[in-house]
Design a protein that fits this description.
The protein is an alpha+beta fold. Helices cover about 30% and strands about 25% of the residues. The model has no long low-confidence stretch (mean pLDDT about 95). GO terms for molecular function: structural constituent of ribosome.
């Protein structure tokens, strides 16, 4: 599988608890924090749920 870089670009303040937990599960902590993860079905599904809060780059 390919690796992708996920960067949080918007705050999770005033977001639903589900979106906050999804961001946390992706390993993101604060704005402009990035993580590199394997692109599998579970990760892609989490990104779809919070795509308005993150930026994605393929590596």
């Amino acid at each position: 599988m390919a690796k992708i870089k996920i960067t949080q670009v918007k705050s999770i303040i005033d977001r639903s608890e589900r979106q906050k937990r999804t961001i946390q599960a992706l390993g993101l902590r604060k704005i402009n924090h990035s993580v590199e993860v394997e692109a599998n079905a579970a990760i892609i599904g989490m990104i779809r749920k919070v795509n308005h809060l993150v930026a994605i780059e393929s590596i």
